[in-house]
Amino acid sequence: MADGTRDPAAIRAGIERARQEIEQSVAELRQGVAQSFDWRHIVRRHPGPVLGGAFALGLLLARWTVR
After folding, report:
1. How far apart are CA 59 and CA 67, in angstroms?
2. What is the dihedral of CA 37, 43, 47, 52, to 10 degrees?
3. Is it the case that residue 3 has pLDDT exceeding 60?
4. What is the distance between the alpha carbons of residues 25 and 23, in angstroms, rounded to a whole number?
5. Is the pLDDT of residue 67 over 80?
6. Segment 9-64, tens digit of pLDDT
7. Rounded Cα–Cα distance for residues 47 and 53 (Å)
8. Alpha helices in the chain (DSSP H)
9. How far apart are CA 50 and CA 61, in angstroms?
């Protein structure tokens, strides 16, 4: 096309490709967010710090309840 306009079918195809890419990105983002807030995943990835934190929290609770 000499005047620089694009074919409507090509525009629709481009929009459809963009929509599919956005859907895929949103799905990946949802999965990442869900995984970030899954406590089992956090414990699997960082068992030492989680165990240390649980121990420290237990000590604090013990000190607060004994008084």
Report:
1. 13
2. 70
3. no
4. 5
5. no
6. 999 999 999 999 999 999 999 999 998 889 898 899 999 999 999 999 999 999 99
7. 10
8. 8-36, 39-45, 47-66
9. 16
Residue with tokens 């694009």: 6
**DSSP 3-state of 35:** helix
Both tokens assigned to 34? 């869900």
Q: Which residues have CB under 8 Å from 13's CB, separation 6+?
A: none
In this prediction the pTM is 0.54
Gap between the Cα atoms of 45 and 32, Å rounded: 14
Reported as a pLDDT band with limits 50, 70 and 90, residue 4 is low
Contact 29, 36 (CB under 8 A): no
